[in-house]
Design brief:
Layout: H1 12-21, H2 25-45, H3 49-58, H4 63-70, H5 74-88, H6 95-131
Length: about 130
């Protein structure tokens, strides 16, 4: 027996928004600006703050679930999330902030995937032209 089908996937609006925003330079820049402090800290210190925050949100904002997924102690996840809060200067558990950060991750992921697909498409067109 097949599991009951949902009438609506709650991620669909996020995917549609991310798809559209990833092609808008201003929206993409705003998303990447929002994430820049985390990425800079990760690049300088190898701290995995972005991964920690993504995992935290993906696991329903549960420190325990994020810790299990990352194979870390809960206190290590709490410490990293406190560093995220300090770097971003905001409460990452406030719904509007969480929604903004989750959207920024989704838009950036979509933009990266779009760029990758474009690169792959260009490579296959170039190869086809060389064989002609």
């Amino acid at each position: 027996m097949n599991p009951p089908r949902r009438l609506h996937d709650p991620r669909d609006p996020l995917r549609a928004t991310a798809h559209a925003a990833a092609r808008d330079e201003r929206a993409l820049a705003a998303c990447r600006t929002l994430l820049s402090a985390l990425r800079r800290a990760d690049a300088e210190r190898g701290s995995d703050l972005e991964l920690t925050l993504r995992t935290y949100y993906e696991r329903g904002a549960s420190v325990s679930a994020a810790a299990n997924a990352l194979f870390l102690h809960r206190n290590s996840v709490r410490y990293r999330l406190d560093r995220v809060r300090a770097l971003l200067g905001c409460d990452i558990d406030e719904p509007a902030i969480a929604a903004s950060l989750i959207t920024a991750f989704a838009v950036d992921d979509e933009a990266s995937a779009f760029k990758e697909r474009a690169t792959i498409g260009t490579g296959s067109r170039d190869a086809a032209q060389r064989t002609q």
